[in-house]
What we know:
2 copies of one chain form a homodimer. In chain A, 32% of the residues lie in helices and 28% in strands. Chain A is globular. By secondary structure, chain A is of the alpha+beta class. The N terminus and C terminus of chain A are likely disordered. In chain A, a hairpin with a 4-residue loop joins strand 2 and strand 3. The first copy, chain A, has one domain: Alpha-Beta Plaits (2-Layer Sandwich), CATH 3.30.70. Chains A, B: Pfam families: Ykof. Chains A, B: This is HMP/thiamine-binding protein YkoF.
Amino acid sequence: xxxxxxxxxxxxxxxxxxxxxxxxxxxxxxxxxxxxxxxxxxxxxxxxxxxxxxxxxxxxxxxxxxxxxxxxxxxxxxxxxxxxxxxxxxxxxxxxxxxxxxxxxxxxxxxxxxxxxxxxxxxxxxxxxxxxxxxxxxxxxxxxxxxxxxxxxxxxxxxxxxxxxxxxxxxxxxxxxxxxxxxxxxxxxxxxxxxxxxxxxxxxxxx
Amino acid sequence: xxxxxxxxxxxxxxxxxxxxxxxxxxxxxxxxxxxxxxxxxxxxxxxxxxxxxxxxxxxxxxxxxxxxxxxxxxxxxxxxxxxxxxxxxxxxxxxxxxxxxxxxxxxxxxxxxxxxxxxxxxxxxxxxxxxxxxxxxxxxxxxxxxxxxxxxxxxxxxxxxxxxxxxxxxxxxxxxxxxxxxxxxxxxxxxxxxxxxxxxxxxxxxx
Lengths: 207, 207
């Protein structure tokens, strides 16, 4: 039970280092606008010239990155999210004060834009890590977002809401099983490139 | 000795799944132009609507992604590279034919643009992984590109040439020590955001 790990300040702080890339000359205003529309008061957040880091309760981390992506996507431009989610990095404690927040989410991201994603799960120091990755694929299949494997990643297709729900569920499940967990994810919407023809549910399930 | 692993088709194939993001309305032509200027004949390469995957000898993989980034950067636009390098993924063999290529590099990337990078090393199923990450930081310090640690990543600053040389060296060294290795890297150039004030060598070394 993750909740037991949070008792008495024993932190199980999660985080995400990510960037939003609007492929547009207006990228600065699209990013600024998305940040302005997102309530980040329950997370620690710091932006530098390469990326942004958000830290806090797992639920709040996913709430914030989902909202920022969804608001940027609402610009209609081709927008990409690229990030690394992490929990249990040894010695990782700054920002612990945000763990005293509750799990009530502050954001209501706009209706989910059609999104393509590629994600990979990396449980560290875990001999059974390949089994955990297989479990994540099964979870994505049961949520209806899994649409195939590519080298080094699994693909998800669906609304931004469905994709982020899948990412959060597979991350949360794996984080219950291993101390240090990393997950990379790249999400793309409004791309001018055609999506690959999606396999039928049966074909996708067989992969 | 990695070379021994390559004898007789026993593959030690490396790969990189990456995307180039020119933050510009001209992103399509910048990407197409960079691809056109890069010789990719010694690697297996496949692009979908989310990312591109390159596979082959480690030297050729780094040669190709470096060249694509450098050519895109030469556009003068704010360009970002985001990618995951991988070697030793179990069951990972398609594209093995490219392992019969030699290590002679085919590209001469344009003079390196000033680049900021954040990278992270993930040795899988390796109890000593934190020590390997510390070794990578030491290697980056000795190459003069390390400029500090941030949550979940280490920062590099330098020319694109210096940054890619650092990434390749730390990846190659770690790949000699562990079977399955992953490294994420985000590189940014021509950003309108100011770089953080870089610490002196002494301060950076002390981190």
